[in-house]
UniProtKB/TrEMBL annotation:
This is Probable allantoicase. Its EC number is 3.5.3.4. The gene is alc. It comes from Thermostaphylospora chromogena. Coiled coil: none annotated. Belongs to the allantoicase family. Keywords: Hydrolase, Purine metabolism.
């Protein structure tokens, strides 16, 4: 039921998401819904609107109706599940919620979105206060926006929209792109260790501001090495690799290597189908490394091996789709 929780949060602010409109935000700002990280709370912290909440909270509704917030997904795609987190909201959480979705082209205004024809992906359901309320989604259509509806009013700390990224890459036809980027449809599908942070971080947009925004493994006490596998945005040819160890001063890998496989011809599970893209190469701490590849073969998956362990801020695989 909760397998989708390992998929990226399509609505996350750091992935480009935005809360573009809300019916009300009298007590706490709507933008908090899509902030990264767990919600915070400090008791007896009062402002001019009452207790300060790290979430979205509407006023007490005295008449009919309900409150809502519209989120533009930073990563359009197929929604596999939604989490409505009411952390710290106990006597002021909604009684029921339901979630709708919409695929919109271009850049519609909030007014245009409110008049659009929305599709329900999570039917109306009761929610618990101070809890992560988890709802699987079985609709497999692509969406660009979601609308969280709460009845009749109250507070929600976070809205998580987990799913599979399905971008429109037609804009980049004939041009080079980052084939590994999450926003282009890349996905980490295998990883040896994610003790300190998620491997999805290495293919996220932007630069890592600290170690927590990269991928870092536990200290390896035995033999072997750590690794991750990225399913590319589509079959392509990788020409330039970026391995960024930014912020990793004493825990960067000593070396790294890259391998590729074309799953249209060899299943990734078959070790004999993989071939070397970048030989085992020394890395420096807190450094952006760029390497031009001599191997111009089509690949669908790329494996990054780091030796023996450590962390990486970003992995970029620049090339073109075939």
């Amino acid at each position: 039921m909760t397998d989708f929780l390992s998929l990226p949060d399509l609505a996350l602010r750091s992935h480009g998401g935005s809360v573009v409109a809300a019916s009300d935000e009298s007590f706490a700002d709507r933008e908090n819904l899509i902030k990264p990280g767990r919600p915070h709370f400090q008791p007896h912290t009062f402002g001019n609107k009452g207790q300060v909440y790290d979430g979205w909270e509407t006023r007490r509704r005295r008449g009919p109706g309900y409150d809502w917030a519209i989120v533009r997904l930073g990563l359009p795609g197929v929604v596999h599940g939604v989490v409505v987190d009411t952390a710290w909201f106990t006597g002021n959480h909604p009684e029921h919620v339901w979630v709708e979705a919409l695929e919109a082209s271009g850049y519609p205004s909030p007014e245009e979105l409110t008049r659009a024809d929305w599709t329900t992906i999570v039917p109306r359901a009761p929610v618990r206060g101070d809890a992560e309320n988890v709802f699987p989604v079985h609709d497999r259509r692509r969406y660009t926006h979601v609308r969280l509806n709460i009845h009749p009013d109250g507070g929600v700390a976070r809205l998580r929209v987990h799913g599979e990224v399905v971008p429109d890459l037609s804009l980049w036809e004939g041009m080079s792109i980052d084939l590994a980027a999450l926003e282009n449809g890349g996905l980490v599908v295998g990883c040896s260790n994610e003790f300190y942070s998620s491997p999805l971080n290495v293919i996220s947009r932007g630069l890592a501001r600290d170690q927590a925004e990269g991928w870092e493994t536990a200290r390896r006490r035995g033999g072997g090495n750590d690794w991750l596998v990225v399913r590319l945005a589509g079959p392509g040819v990788v020409r330039v690799v970026e391995l960024d160890t930014a912020n990793l001063v004493y825990n960067a890998p000593a070396e790294a290597a890259l391998s590729g496989v074309d799953a249209r011809r060899n299943p990734p599970e078959d070790p004999d189908g993989w071939f070397r893209l970048l030989p085992r190469t020394r890395l420096q701490p807190d450094t952006l490394h760029r390497f031009r590849l001599d191997v111009a073969r089509e690949v669908t998956h790329v494996r990054l091996d780091i030796y023996p362990d450590g962390g990486l801020a970003r992995l970029r695989l620049h090339g073109h789709l075939v």
